[in-house]
Amino acid sequence: MGKKIGKLVLLIAVLLGISYIAYFGIGKDKYGSAEDIKLGLDLNGGLSITFQTVEENPSSQDMKDTIYKLQKRVEKYSTEANVYQEGDNRINVEIPLKSTDMASAKAILDDLGQPGSLEFVDVDENVIITGSDIKDAEAMYTTDNTTGSKKYLVSLTLTEEGAEKFAEGTRRVSQKTNTNDKKIAIVYDGKQISNPICEKEITGGEVSIDNMESYEAADTLATYIRIGAIPLELTTLRSNIVAPELGSNAIDTSLMAALIGIILIIVFMIAYYRIPGLASSIALIIYIGLVIFAVSAFEVTLTLPGIAGIVLSIGMAVDANVIIFARIREELANGYTVETAIKNGFDKAFSAIFDGNITTLIAAVVLYALGSGTVKGFAVTLAIGIILSMFTAIVVTKFIIKLFFQLGANKPSLYGMQKPKKIFNFMKKKVVYLLISLALIAVGVVAMIINGVNGKGVFNFSIEFVGGSSTSVTFNEALSQSEIENDVVPVIKDIIGIGTIQTQRVEGSTEVVFKTKELTAEQGEKISKALEEKYSVDPKKITSESISSTVSKEMQRDAIISLSVAMVAILLYIWVRFRNIRFATSAIIALLHDVLVVVAFYAVARIPMGNTFIACILTIVGYSINATIVIFDRIREDVKTKAQKENLSDVVNRSVTSTLSRSINTSITTGIMLVMLFILGVTSIREFSLPLIVGVICGAYSSVCVSGSLWHTFMMKFPPKSE
Fold it and tell me: Are the CB atoms for 46 and 96 separated by under 8 Å?
């Protein structure tokens, strides 16, 4: 009994400890605390910088290249930073930053304006290679075996052309007789950072920059070199600290939605699964604490869609527990004792949990490696949620259930006995399911055509995708965010019609920036006149400029490439794990089906397609593939144990039926969180949560009705050679 009490005390201590760490952090610096979480521009405001090119009429290509490379540079401060064009020769950079952190603001200003040029020059001032000759750069360090001291360096990999030029240059320099003439100066941004002596010709395209003062300095230099030189020389036109785009109520309502959702999920889990449900509820609280700590510790910048993503992950985190508990019930129904049922339940559920989460984790890794901007931020949050949900389900929940069992909860009724299930004949209606899917997608295609013909645009793209106008208004007195949203925005909306209006207050002034769709000259004049009449604003203090999209073509390309590579990687993993290409192909088709249905919904409902669209699609991909893997895992298991006379159609029906409760219950727990977000959230959260609700419903439908049917069709049309 002493050991049991000890485990209970340990559990309580872990709960209290994680709760304390998640809120207060660790140590004097409060490392990992909730209050130390980085917030995005929409929630916390930040630094807004406007650069102007020295060249008066830069080419559009140079502007695009400069914007893209600046975007890459600011990612080291935050993946949620925005970089976009204003007018013909201006570039705006917006970086999440605390309004009190002016020291960081100055450092960022000094950093971003640097041209980033790199040259290897001999004493005759001949340039041997430049930054464009370098393929890759990586910070490294070596350790002296005698003294143990570390030496920091940047390892460079040259292009094929760069390697040839460098070999020729070092051969020429090394043949000089005077030692001083053998030096090659490494000049970065006009400043010599190293001056090594070249004793021999260097071939192979591998070069190093030695004698860096620290690893951080080497890493910074490597980052600049990788990004390459900024094509245009920039000057800082203005810089401001801007207030949050959304009011504080956005955070409050999201957190309230999360709290209510968590309570409802806990009530549902306990009511449906009893003791296991109570155990998963305790594990869920631990999971939430760990997520808060991880987001803070890894310095993930949290935007409003990010909060929605975490709230969504809370609903999805229950999924692994649902799979386990369904298995425990099956084992009890098969006549096993509670103790054996618990053990077998966790063992048999492991492969489905492992494969489902690994496929999603593969997607997260690929998205982070190849994506940019919000895609990288989403990938980090997704990876954190996956790893922690697996840990809490497989380790924490198991520990708690075993503890409850040892404390006396050993009656089968406390774990929910499974009643005999009627096997549904899903295969009988697979043609019907196919027609339903095609009809849903066709409705979207028709809506796109009608929208295009009517001049509305195929999709309702927001300014993040198509750009628009930025109107700066200096009022006679400072307005609160509430006054701006409730009084000023409706005035502008009456003039421009339907469309998202983003607002930003400039801290320390009465200036407010309104970002809207592209304004006509007439609309601009009407806005100026309306503000003059209602707020006595001086027309000279109202300026408007065209702005480009914050989601650049390059970022869209990165998102498409990374998503495509992720799908291929998932296909290969499933192929290897399931040893059957039909599983992999069916999973990818089902995934594409869900994505197409959600895209169709965007077209039909005319929901603004902005940054949240990318996050929404990526979330659907993770959710959909996980749901499909669970069913395929059961099919794989049932195929091995099927009776000799049982056909594949019966196996699929039995497998889908046995996982039906999991599909329904996971959709319920995830749907609870999304519905709460939709009911309580601000406009942008509703625009995010509504397509996700559609995606969750569609994901459940495709996993139950489409994926198994696809696999069965492929097996019939292309049977394995062994059969």
Answer: yes
